């Protein structure tokens, strides 16, 4: 074992010991995130796991946040945390554009996948089925619904029609 690795292990041990003594909740969340493969963001304990829907910050601040389904969370060789996402499209972002029957909070689950920095996640949201969305008594700002899957390359939808 090289002296560097011994020093690193010693520092890591000291860090964990410090966390246990001073911030047991932080230590617990660190271990939990490691064991469960979840991502804990920012100072406000936002726990993200595969299967969650998230709002992603666009580079243009005038735009609405993007909505994505987190498929996987991983760190690269420099410990930069990345999320593999499957994008939701708003009707106006699709090839056919927004139609009269599209709901204000409607999204299309696309076949468009991407890797993004975890730092672009603004928060969590919920994408409901249309049936469950229509049963909500109070629709919050982070509530959306989806009734179509969208093939981004062709502009095709599945199913190709629904009752309106």
Short description:
By secondary structure, the chain is an alpha+beta fold. The protein is globular and about 60 Å long.
Structure overview:
The protein is an alpha+beta fold and 164 residues long. The chain contains 3 helices and 9 strands. The strands form 2 sheets. A 6-stranded mixed β-barrel has the order 3-4-5-6-8-7. It has a two-stranded antiparallel sheet with strand order 1-2. Helix 1 (3-22) packs across helix 2. The protein is globular.
Key terms for this structure?
alpha+beta; 9 strands; 38% strand; 6-stranded mixed barrel; 164 residues
Helices and strands in order:
Blueprint: H1 3-22, H2 24-36, E1 39-41, E2 46-48, E3 53-56, E4 66-75, E5 81-89, E6 106-117, E7 121-129, H3 130-134, E8 143-151, E9 156-158
Parallel strand pairs: 6-8, 7-8
Antiparallel strand pairs: 1-2, 3-4, 3-7, 4-5, 5-6, 8-9
Order of helices and strands: HHEEEEEEEHEE
Mean model confidence by pLDDT:
80
Q: Hey, roughly how much beta strand do the residues contain? A: 35-45%
> Would you report the number of β strands?
9
Rg, nearest Å:
20 Å
């Amino acid at each position: 074992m090289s002296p560097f690795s011994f020093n690193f292990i010693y520092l890591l041990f000291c860090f964990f010991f410090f966390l246990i003594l001073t911030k047991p909740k932080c230590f617990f969340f660190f271990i939990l995130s490691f064991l469960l493969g979840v991502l804990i963001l920012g100072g406000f304990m936002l726990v993200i796991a595969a299967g969650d829907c998230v709002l992603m910050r666009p580079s243009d601040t005038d735009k609405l946040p993007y909505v994505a389904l987190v498929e996987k969370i991983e760190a690269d060789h420099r410990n930069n945390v990345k999320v593999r996402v499957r994008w939701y499209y708003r009707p106006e972002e699709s090839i056919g554009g927004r139609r009269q029957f599209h709901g204000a909070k409607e999204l299309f689950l696309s076949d468009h996948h991407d890797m993004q920095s975890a730092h672009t996640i603004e928060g969590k949201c919920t994408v409901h089925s249309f049936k469950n969305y229509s049963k909500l008594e109070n629709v919050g700002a982070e509530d959306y619904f989806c009734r179509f899957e969208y093939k981004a390359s062709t502009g095709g939808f599945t199913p190709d029609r629904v009752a309106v």
